[in-house]
């Protein structure tokens, strides 16, 4: 029996977002051999999307490894279910209902395909190639347009009974608080700590403080990037926007720590560009709300991976990881 | 090679509380062959406690199975650490600091000893012999003098990085809310949903409603049992005490569901005697705060096991379960 040269084996990592899809061919060392993207919303029909992806990727497979060394496909997508390989009721995708995405991919590419939600994929990427290397217990929080999460416990992603575990952005941090623009829930973490939530906070606070630099902008131009610029220029209102956001985030993180007692919490996504403006108050309010046995133990760190790369790497890592209990082959 | 007759194998389950310790010899079918107890607080020195336990238990071992068929000891105790077999800084025990309890037990009894905290032991008991039979993902909440929890994910207890995961009683349900009498935290689940919390709520509410039956009692006689008696007699204030408690509990449960997406939440402990007075509002407010994909999926049920038996059974189950990753033999 010939030994397989693992270094020649390649996986395809795909990160599907509402607007863009990014993909990359990845080897066993976590090196992205080549990457590309296509517009998700150009394809109202899922089969057309898969066909277009195949046309882009198959020449790369031939170039880098050939079908024989092509091990499989890992996909991160919103509302993707690890157990069933389906995308279910994703609000930001054209493909409605329950889409058997993994099965359709395998039929086209003739290799196994595994899926999970985008934040879980990023958590896997961090464990295998990023800031969480060597860790078995950590929580990944993505702070972007929304707030997502991936929870690693004992070296395994927590999928829960139905494959949808880890929706920490929708946990309530302030009962009866800010109404979420889409879910209608009151006081969820996402309503405060997402880029969208920061924009809402900024609009409220600049109305209270007429001298704030934030008032030099049109209402429609206010966003988390503008708040960051004003904060770096020393605007106290902009700094307070991040402090308040960090407080709400830190209070939520304390509850997460008391659930799964992780070694670290990794923060990821566009909002972390705010740096210490958000990290310091988050750390302060996390520690303040922790039960004593958990204090000064949990690292709160930013992701080390480039955002686009992390998603591709994490998705590709699905191909080589052990299958979690509950995984169903179709 | 002779086959081992599993039905003859016996384990000792021990449940250590601040005041009382209960123990039982348990066979593989989850039948308690004989049980007993001793006063924990009669023994300021841990070795004296272990010697006394040995003197009580060793005649039973000889009677039922003999040392050859005695497989081991499982212990549930406050602040017990599964990984290290130690009891650490337990506020309600005489034994201070870090006590190497499992090692001391093994030295005395000459069989392996495994430990976990009391709520985790109860969760194991429910999975093997109670309402969670066949479930791989569930959360156990114990509502007693305090609020404890055990979290089962993928058929394994979540221990976390340090062995202390699952302190859900200390998660904050109302930021800036009621100050906890012992930890000093503000607005924790335990401050509202424990028997102690219910007593505080009842004292506040009866002051607001002079006509309440609760005002027929002396201040020091108010407790959750009295509130239950008044509720069954139709006192609206007593009913409101449980409704408010159930609301706070339900809001917390919603957050727990969005973390680990369990098949069921099991409630356990003295407070569940309040029945539907607390279960109905808990269910209502859990569902109301859930992200849509989790709604109407999670069973909210009471434990099926007798309280004393559950702890003994759960502790004994440690002996026969697979060792979780991270378990360290000393």
Q: Which descriptors apply to this entry?
A:
Nucleotidyltransferase, domain 5, 330 residues, 2 domains, globular, homodimer, five-stranded mixed beta sheet, alpha/beta, 20% strand, 9 helices
Counted by DSSP, the helix tally of chain A is 9
Percent helix of chain A, as a range, is 25-40%
The CATH class of the largest domain in chain A is identified as: Alpha Beta
Task: Give the tally of β-strands of chain A.
Answer: 13
Query: What multimeric state do the chains show?
Result: homodimer
Order the strands across the largest sheet of chain A as they lie in space: 3-2-1-4-8
Low-confidence stretches of chain A: none
Structural class of chain A: alpha/beta
What about the largest sheet of chain A? 5 strands, mixed
What coarse outline of chain A follows from CA principal-axis ratios?
Answer: globular
Query: What fraction of residues of chain A sit in β-strands?
Result: 15-25%
Order of helices and strands of chain A: EEEHEEEEHEHEEEHHHHEHEH
């Amino acid at each position: 029996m010939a030994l397989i040269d693992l270094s020649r084996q390649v996986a395809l990592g795909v990160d599907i977002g509402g607007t863009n899809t990014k993909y990359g061919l990845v080897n066993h060392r976590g090196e992205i051999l080549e990457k590309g993207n296509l517009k998700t919303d150009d394809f109202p029909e899922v089969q057309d999307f898969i066909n277009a992806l195949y046309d882009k990727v198959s020449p790369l497979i031939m170039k880098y490894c050939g079908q024989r060394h092509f091990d499989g496909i890992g996909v991160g997508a919103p509302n993707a279910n690890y157990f069933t390989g389906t995308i279910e009721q994703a609000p930001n995708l054209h493909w409605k209902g329950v889409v058997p995405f993994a099965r359709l991919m395998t039929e086209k590419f003739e290799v196994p395909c595994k899926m999970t939600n985008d934040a879980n994929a990023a958590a896997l990427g961090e464990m295998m190639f990023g800031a969480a290397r060597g860790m078995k217990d950590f929580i990944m929080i993505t702070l972007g347009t929304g707030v997502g999460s991936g929870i690693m416990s004992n070296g395994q992603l927590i999928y829960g009974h139905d494959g949808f575990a880890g929706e920490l952005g929708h946990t309530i941090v302030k009962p009866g608080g800010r109404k979420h623009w889409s879910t209608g829930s009151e006081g969820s973490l996402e309503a405060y700590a997402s880029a969208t939530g920061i924009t809402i906070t900024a609009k409220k606070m600049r109305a209270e403080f007429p001298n704030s630099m934030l008032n030099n902008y049109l209402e429609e131009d206010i966003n988390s990037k503008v708040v960051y610029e004003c904060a770096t220029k020393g605007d106290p209102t902009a700094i307070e926007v991040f402090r308040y956001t960090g407080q709400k985030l830190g209070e939520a993180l304390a509850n997460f720590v008391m659930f799964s007692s992780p070694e670290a919490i990794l923060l990821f996504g566009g909002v972390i560009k705010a740096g210490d403006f958000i990290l310091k108050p988050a750390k302060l309010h996390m520690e303040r709300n922790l039960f004593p046995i958990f204090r000064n133990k949990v690292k709160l760190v930013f992701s080390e991976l480039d955002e686009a790369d992390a998603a591709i790497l994490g998705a590709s890592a699905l191909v080589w990881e052990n299958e979690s209990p509950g995984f169903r082959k179709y």
